[in-house]
Amino acid sequence: MTTPSRLPDPYGSGGGANLADILERVLDKGVVIAGDIRINLLDIELITIKLRLIVASVDKAKEMGIDWWEDDPALSSRARHNELARENAELRAHVAELEGARPEEEAS
Predict the structure, then answer these.
(1) pTM > 0.70: yes or no
(2) How far is it, in rounded angstroms, from Cα 61 to Cα 32?
(3) C-alpha neighbours within 13 Å on the C-beta side of residue 83
(4) What is the DSSP letter of 45?
(5) Are the beta carbons of 51 and 36 closer than 8 angstroms?
(6) Residue 15 falls in which region: left (phi positive, over 0), alpha (psi -120 to 50) or beta
(7) pLDDT the model gives residue 1
(8) Residues 6+ away with beta carbon under 8 Å from 36
């Protein structure tokens, strides 16, 4: 009688990296994927699309100088607050300007 052979365990501890290790390494080092798509018609370039994908941790991205999410009101409550404060200041200045113009109009 033969015994079925045991298949290798893909997630075993036999020296292979597991998903958590790979993810930690990718987020620690960062990965950049870049590609261009060009559509030409009779040697005339109609459209070019440049794709860039960066996968990294927030800390690594900040080290690389990438912090656009901090200024995006849709992603950052601090940016949303700053945008509202700026808009409020502009509206107050506009109201003050209109109220300053009112006495001159009444005098005429």
Answers:
(1) no
(2) 11
(3) 11
(4) E
(5) yes
(6) left
(7) 55
(8) 48, 49, 50, 51
Gap between the Cα atoms of 86 and 79, Å rounded: 10
The yes-or-no verdict on residue 14 having pLDDT over 60 is no
DSSP code, position 37: E
Q: Is 30 left (phi over 0), alpha (psi -120 to 50) or beta?
A: left
Angle 94-96-99 from CA coordinates, rounded to 5°:
110
pLDDT tens track for 28-60: 777 778 888 889 888 888 898 988 888 888 788
φ, ψ for residue 37, nearest 5 deg: -120, 125
CA distances from 92 to 89, 96, 97 (A): 5, 6, 8
Helix (H, G, I), strand (E, B) or coil at 27: helix
pLDDT per position as a tens digit, 17-30: 788 888 888 777 77
Q: Determine contact, residues 52/66, Cβ cutoff 8 Å.
A: no
